[in-house]
Amino acid sequence: MKAFLILEDGTVFEGTSIGSTREVISEIVFNTSMTGYLEVLTDPSYAGQAVVMTYPLIGNYGICYEDMESDRPWPDGYIVRELSRIPSNFRSEDTIQNFLEKYDIPGISGVDTRALTKILREKGTMNGMITTKQYDDLTDPIARMHAYTVTGVVKKTSCKEKYILPASDEFEKPIKKVALLDLGAKRNIARSLAKRGCEVTIYPCDTTAEEILASHPDGIMLSNGPGDPKENVEIIKEIRKLYESDVPIFAICLGHQLMALATGADTFKLKYGHRGGNHPVKDAETGRAIISSQNHGYAVDPKSLDPNIAIPAFTNVNDGTNEGLKYVGKNIFTVQYHPEACPGPQDSAYLFDRFINMMGGNN
Ligand SMILES: NC(=O)CC[C@H](N)C(=O)O
Questions:
Q1: Model confidence pLDDT, tens digit, residues 47-64
Q2: What's the CA-to-centroid distance between 295 and ligand 1, angstroms?
């Protein structure tokens, strides 16, 4: 069946419908990862967005449920150049087509995703519509696209009840207990800690700081998550209380942004964000640049930082934007990118070890 991708600026791409045939409006963002499409699809930070995959062939190694980064796919739409219909992989359990259909996610294939990405890069992220309906007049769909904003997505993607991920089997008892605030967390954050001997208690996003602190964790992790960081007014208040405690904190992506907002700094929306597996970041502590996995549309404004509270500790080598902070006089550091990888390079996995050392290491 024919499908159309209509952008807010009136550009129309024609292609073939994949997944659900439902009409959807969402924010259109592009991801440049060459592999890891399932991890991208199941990253909760894409809730409210339709993802354009710039790599031209998607689905060739199928769907391996074990590789999912959450319980389900989260983007509201999926845009590809070519969808592989016959996955070739002994681990594969399903196809993208079935996977999208099962979760009622509309998509479109046959789109010149590189031309589309150039538009998004030049004009900035915009809203768009995926539809199987042919509109003769775009006035109404464009008005609806203008009115769309990503909202309420942290609550939607966070777990509903707290649960525990035990330390990996090779540890007789956990070396540390970590409380993870799930703002729409990717699984590999908790897994990266469990693999290093931590018992991780995962809390829903509306958990109070008092409840978390009452469990006396050795450290607190704030996860990644979808949407505009500033929308999370109540969560920011709780994070302020966590900042004021003396518990070591490590935060990733949305968690990093919320800690910055909780301590008086500001965030802003990037023109088209960073989403992919090849973003170079310099770690001021080691002086080294690593290649990172990224998925963010907002960033902390370094001009808004009070140097008595937080100082830039990680910087994007491509565009100089802030990629992480170190908090003065506190055992707190935060990153805008993804040390948990999945998808993407694992160069920054050492940050989980840095966090464990901050909690007192293996003793
Ligand atoms: N991966 C994330 O945590 C993303 C954070 C935030 N939603 C942003 O787009 O900037």
A1: 999 999 999 999 999 999
A2: 6
By alpha-carbon position, which residue is closest to atom 8 of ligand 1?
A: 296
DSSP-derived letter for residue 12 is E
Residues of the chain with CATH 3.40.50.880: 155-358
**Ligand 1: residues within 6 Å at CB?**
45, 224-227, 229, 253-254, 295-298
Domain with CATH 3.50.30.20 in the chain: 2-150
Token duo for residue 198? 């931590």
225: CA distance to ligand 1 center in Å? 5
Q: Report, as residue numbers or ranges, the catalytic residues.
A: 253, 338, 340
pLDDT in the model for residue 363:
65
What is the C-alpha separation between 268 and 142, in angstroms, rounded? 25
Classified as helix, coil or strand, 145 is: helix
ipTM of the predicted assembly exceeds 0.90: yes
Of 3.50.30.20, 3.40.50.720, 3.40.50.80, 3.40.30.10, the CATH number of 2-150 is: 3.50.30.20
What's the CATH number for 155-358? 3.40.50.880
pLDDT averaged over every residue in the chain: 97
Q: What is the pTM of this model?
A: 0.98
